[in-house]
Amino acid sequence: MKTYFNWIVVKDKKQYLWLLALPLGLLKAILFDIHDSQMFNRLFETVMAVMVCVYFFIRFNSYSQFFNPDHPKPTDVK
User: Fold this and answer.
1) Is 76 domain-assigned?
2) Count of domains observed in the chain
3) pLDDT (tens digit per residue) in 32-69
4) Which of 20, 24, 76, 78 could be a cystine partner for 72, CB 3.0 to 4.6 Å?
């Protein structure tokens, strides 16, 4: 099986909880944000929170010489 995202190495399985923001944000947007009188403000807050969680997932699970030097490089893990 070919891996397309070989630059992401998840060391701790609890890091997948960051991605739980995607379905929860979508559910919140459908159930609460669309029916609110301030729809665009609430929707913007939800989208920004989901984007921050996805950013943290990528940041914590990818190698960076400055931000995450102790994380294994994708070439080190086979």
Assistant:
1) yes
2) 1
3) 988 888 888 999 999 999 999 999 998 888 877 776 77
4) 76
